[in-house]
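User: structure tokens for this one?
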Amino acid sequence: MKAQLRQQILAKRLALSEQVLAAYASSLIKQIKAHPLYQKAKVVGLFSAIKHEPDLSPLLKDAKIWLLPKVLGENLIYVRYQSQSSLIKSELGILEPQGLKDESSNLDLVIIPGIAFDTKGNRIGFGKGYFDRFLSSHQPPYVIGVAYPFQMQKQIKTTKADVPVNEVLVA
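Assistant:
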């Protein structure tokens, strides 16, 4: 069921035009900037968009300390973002910061993507469990998921390993 839903929503997402993607990203960026926890946060975890995930990179210009996820084996760490040109493509094809200094414990807020979310904050990702393992072991103060309207589901069947986000912002 999860695999089928993942395929359907991913296909919809990949079919989005550049104009629609830009409009959705703009809507999400406005919502994030207006969020009181974002306004208070000093250290924010963001992500490098792949496969038509929302491109929230304009936020990186805000006066925050930015951390991006980096895959190490089966786990994620959050490493400080320096500049777009300092990012390197990982084996998974995701732009990651260089270096190995894990600053995850400094996070005030984490913003993560997903393939599907429900109203309780449950999410479906790509199925590798990186974010779930990170969230269960680090328990950052607040986690915001970002989604396009069609990614929202009534209910997502979860397992013990799944970790919900605190809130989902919808474009």
